[in-house]
Amino acid sequence: MRKLIGSLVIVAWMVAYIAVAGVVGDRISSEHWAWKLLYFPIVGLAWVLPLKPLLRWIHAKDGPRESPDV
């Protein structure tokens, strides 16, 4: 269940991030080349940083469960 929830969050995050990065990138495209040189590599790599805790949570092992006394 954890992987399903995490996968849906990742897809939603990527759609939102790409939309915002695309709009900002479109506005920056008419600016000086130095802004583009800074913006696009940073945005191209920065999407993964917020996903790091989520990926750690997705791949975490569940703790030992207590068995009910029978």
State mean pLDDT (0 to 100 scale).
89
| Helix-strand category | mainly alpha
What's the gyration radius in Å?
19 Å
Inertia-based shape:
elongated
User: The biggest beta sheet, please?
Assistant: none
Q: What is the string of helix and strand elements?
A: HHH
Work out the helicity level.
Answer: over 70%
Count of DSSP H/I helices: 3
Strand content: under 5%
Number of distinct beta strands: 0
Written description of the protein model:
The chain is built from 3 helices and no strands. The protein has about 70 residues and is mostly helical. It has a domain at about 15-60. Helix 1 (about 1-30) runs antiparallel to helix 3 (about 50-60). It has helices at about 1-30, 35-45, 50-60.
Compact summary:
With about 70 residues, the protein is mostly helical. Helices cover about 70% and strands about 0% of the residues.
